Amino acid sequence: MKTFSRLLRRYLLAAVGIVLLMFVLGTSVLGWVLWREGQRPKREYSYSNIADSMVQTADGLAFGPQHTPEEWMDGYSWAMVLDADGRVIWSYALPRTLDRRYTSSDVARFSRWYLDDYPVFCWAEDYGLFVAGTEPGSMWKYTAYASPGMLTDIAGFLLPCLLGMLAAGLAVCFLLSWRGARELLALARRDNARTQWIAGVSHDVRTPLALILGWAEQLEQDAALPAPARQKAGGIRTQSERLRTLIDDLNLTSKLQYGAQPLRRELLTVGPLLRQLVAQFCDSPLADQCDLSLTQTLDAEQAQISADPALLGRLVENLLSNSVRHNPQPVTVCLCAEVRSRQLCLTFTDDGVGYPPAVLAALKEPESSEDAPHILGLHVVEQIAAAHGGTAVFEQNHPHGARAVIRLPLGELTRSA
What is the pTM of this model? Predict the structure, then answer.
């Protein structure tokens, strides 16, 4: 169920994220359009203000004395005044094609829209009809009309239509969510069954495996047996220990993948923790087959991390064991701890044969193929690092050998890096 909840949460977050993204994009486009409009030249004075400012002089009509004609006409191309008979009695920069007499029908046509493709603005004054125009194509100028019945219909049907569209949208979203939820629930049940099956098999195998390990160890230490028999018993014990490790890795990777492995975090000091984990490995039989060294900088020695000590111990054990088991003995293994960019950096290196190219290729693939090499132990390392918010990188060591770099976030640093 944890997997189902996690996938459902991701689905909802993705839906909300898409809505927010569309809202931000729409708002950005609208803001850009308004900004572009704000950058366009603005008319300093409205045509009504210009018409009101006109004065009668001995030479006829003229602009008001408050500003120059150029200032009054800023944003307009031309202007004229028509008398009651439609004759031009005053003009400013009037195009020659417009200098004519206009009938009442002509005035009715251009008073709200265009005059010979010139957008025009009209204002009635006592001295006549003031007309100001701009260049063709400089703006769109239209007027919309609606009857009271149309407005009533819109008011009566718009709200139900909007509610219907909203209900339809919600129904579609519910249908898609319901189908997605069914698929996620089926996936969650399958994952839960897989996890339980692996846990059950692991539990059932541990008991006979423990008996095999115990008997093999007794036979290996029985001095009455010939040396070849004791050597074979030692081989049985070694392979049984490897089988136990594989079972533990399989069970752990399944729990980590499906969220069934709880993280019991503690604030741990790195120096004592690494010394303890290395000491535990040195007590194992594998330690006899390698030369292990631990190096820590002062910053790493005093650094603190929030981690699950059991899982972190499994990470260290898997990497150290991997170097010993997959290399001819003896092999030199080095663990170096340092602090870089507020992260604990653990570097595991050995002087063995290095990672096979197929292993490195399989680690980079999101899905394992049927012919992929065995990388379960390294995959567990990746999962443990990711569960702690860190990363794991596997590469070849130079001049030879394998190199694994684990980066984990620091919880608290008592000494600045």
Answer: 0.48
Contact 296, 337 (CB under 8 A): yes
Q: 259 or 136: which carries more pLDDT confidence?
A: 136
Rounded-to-integer distance, Cα 403 and Cα 350, Å: 7
**DSSP 3-state of 304:** strand
Which of 261, 286, 303 is the C-terminal boundary of a domain? 261
Is the CB of residue 94 less than 8 Å from the CB of residue 79? yes
Range from 94-108, 229-243, 255-269 that averages highest in pLDDT:
94-108
Q: Which two tokens stand for residue 231?
A: 């050597």
The answer to whether the beta carbons of residues 199 and 252 sit under 8 Å apart is no
C-alpha distances out from residue 98 to 62, 80, 86, 118, Å: 19, 10, 12, 10
Q: In the listed set 261, 281, 296, which residue is the last one of a domain according to the structure? A: 261
Identify the three-state secondary structure at position 63.
coil
Q: What is the pLDDT of residues 373-386, one digit of tens each?
A: 677 788 889 988 98
Instruction: Check residue 238 and give its pLDDT.
Output: 75
DSSP string, 85-136: TS-EEEEES--GGG-S---HHHHHHHSSSEETTEEEEEEEETTEEEEEE--T
| Nearest by Cα to 347 from 295, 299, 309 | 295
Helix (H) or strand (E) run with residue 331 in it: strand 331-340
Q: Which CATH number is 315's domain given?
A: 3.30.565.10
Number of domains in the chain: 3
Q: Can you give the pLDDT at residue 223? A: 85
Q: Do 281 and 355 belong together in one domain?
A: yes
Instruction: Say which residue the tokens 């650094």 belong to.
Output: 303
Q: Give the separation between CA 50 and CA 216, rounded to whole angstroms.
A: 109
